[in-house]
Amino acid sequence: MVTATMQAPSPAAPVPPPVPAPAAPLLAVRDLRKSYGAREILKGISFDLARGETLVLIGPSGSGKTTVLRCLNHLEAPSGGEIRLAGESVGGHLSPDGRWRPMSESALARQRRRFGFVFQRFNLFPHLSALDNVTIGPRRTLGLSRAEAEARAKAQLARVSLAEHMHKRPSQLSGGQQQRVAIARALAMEPELILFDEPTSALDPELVHEVLDVMRALAREGLTMIVVTHEMRFARQVADRLIVMEDGAIVEEGPPEAIFTDPGDPRTRRFLTHVLDR
Amino acid sequence: MTIDWAIVAMAVPLLVQGALTSLKIAALAGALGLAGGVALGLVSLGGPAPARLLVRAYVDFIRGTPLLIQIFIVFFGLPMLGWRPGEFVSGVLALSLNSAAYVAEVVRGAVGAVERGQSEAAKSIGMTRGQILVYVLLPQAIRPMTPALTNDLITLVKNTSLLSVISVYELTRSGQAIIASHFAPLEIFALLAIYYYVIISCLAYVSRQLERRMPAW
């Protein structure tokens, strides 16, 4: 009776997944939809993410990869579907009568602290030093003391090899350095997973590797992450699992080696020929 | 046409007292207007919907009616509410209320013009709307706000002359008093113009220096 109104298979339903089940997934996305007016951007996206997993989303521009990420932590409100983080519904809940009840603004803010987000254009706070950019989250939203927050921020800046630049403003840093500060800012919140939205697309080609190196290290350390990228070599090397999107839907999903060497879907094949032939 | 230099010489020191009063009014109303305007601006950016609507209506009223009328309304309205603060306080209050509406618009405009990615980054580290305003948007809006706020302050200084109608003994009123006793309107009004011009030139200079010293990032 309770699940009668739900379109997607409920996570509570005892349907065994096809792969050997890891415990409960950290993130479960079911039938995620997003429309702007009549334009349907996401046409029902479903996937799970296990703790420690690196999931990479690839696909042509406009396929909806970025929108998926932005819906996950509700930078965009989804138009339908369900997102669960460690079993907890994100952004609100479906009431028994099937209506979506958004949570309060402060509850959503608390929930967003559990997702890190790294933007294509860094979006560092230009009026703050690198250190303050990283400190402000733990200090203002996690309620740490200044000393605690700064200690944490310094550790994260060291982790992305920027300890010696911590007193500089973003405008005094290169693009690659700025993006690493942005990664440190996300890490300092100690999120359960980090979402990377084309983190190297705004960088000069010679700076791309320093950001990818940091992300590679994070993946090795077991950080849970979802990465939208056009860096195919990175995707192939670092992804535990690859999702190929086109036109607002998932066309293929699986281990990167399999998809790169033998794409099962003609759309994937076409996309890969385009990006790999450059 | 001859200029009566004796009257000019006599008026210059007499007007200093009035000029000081004008400056005092401008400083008080400027400070109150700034504080009130920032508060109103923040409400119109992040407050609950009914409060935003009220601020909108207030700003529309202030911008849609002459300051002279607003001064009279405050001057004659306050005693009806049972408070007789006198013409000086009434005048300062009227100018503050007026200035706050304009400052609110400047704040709203400048904060609204901060790039959207900034709020998104702040949201992504779990900030609430209020925190985003205070820690991220407002600090970045101060520099772009400064020229517009300077303009508002200059307007405010000129507007203090309107308080002469409720007999506040500021610069214009003290000039009128000299005219009444010596009948040399052109000399005195020209002198008043020079006084205002000098005051405002100084203000503009200070503001330019301030702007130059503000951190650019």
For this entry, give a set of tags.
heterodimer, A: 278 residues, alpha/beta, six-stranded mixed beta sheet, four-stranded antiparallel beta sheet, disordered N terminus, B: 217 residues, mainly alpha, MetI-like fold, 8 helices, transmembrane helix (chain B)
Describe this structure as you would to a colleague:
The complex is a heterodimer of chains A (278) and B (217). The longest helix of chain A has 14 residues. The N terminus of chain A is likely disordered. In chain A, helix 5 packs parallel to helix 6. Chain A has 278 residues and is of the alpha/beta class. Chain A is globular, with a radius of gyration of 19 Å. Chain A is 33% helix and 23% strand. Chain A has a domain of 58 residues. Chain B is mainly α. Chain B has a single domain, classed as MetI-like (MetI-like fold, Orthogonal Bundle). Chain B has eight helices and no strands. In chain B, helix 1 runs antiparallel to helix 6, helix 2 packs across helix 4 and helix 5 packs antiparallel against helix 6. Chains A and B meet through helix 2, strand 8, helix 3 and helix 5 of A and helix 5 and helix 6 of B. Chain A: InterPro entries: AAA+_ATPase, ABC_ATPase_HisP-typ, ABC_transporter-like_ATP-bd, ABC_transporter-like_CS, MetN_ABC_transporter-like, P-loop_NTPase. Chain A: It is a peripheral membrane protein. Chain A: Belongs to the ABC transporter superfamily. Chain A: It is an enzyme of class 3 (hydrolase). Chain A: Its EC number is 3.6.3.-. Chain B: Part of the binding-protein-dependent transport system for glutamine; probably responsible for the translocation of the substrate across the membrane.
CATH fold-level name of chain B:
MetI-like fold
Kindly provide the radius of gyration of chain B, computed on alpha-carbon positions and rounded to a whole number of angstroms.
21 Å
> Percentage of helical residues of chain A?
25-40%
Structural class of chain A: alpha/beta
Q: How much helix is in the residues of chain B?
A: over 70%
Please tell me how large the radius of gyration of chain A is. 19 Å
Give the CATH superfamily of chain B.
MetI-like
Enumerate the spans of chain B where pLDDT stays under 50 for 5 or more consecutive residues: none
Order of helices and strands of chain B: HHHHHHHH
Q: How many domains make up the 3D coordinates of chain B?
A: 1
Overall body shape of chain B: elongated
For the termini of chain A, the CA-CA separation is 54 Å
Order of helices and strands of chain A: EEEHEEEEHEHHHEHEHEEHH
CATH architecture of chain B: Orthogonal Bundle
Distance between the termini of chain B: 57 Å
Organism (chain A): Methylobacterium symbioticum
Subcellular location (chain A): Cell membrane
Region (Disordered) (chain A): 1-20
Keywords (chain A): Amino-acid transport, ATP-binding, Cell membrane, Hydrolase, Membrane, Nucleotide-binding, Transport
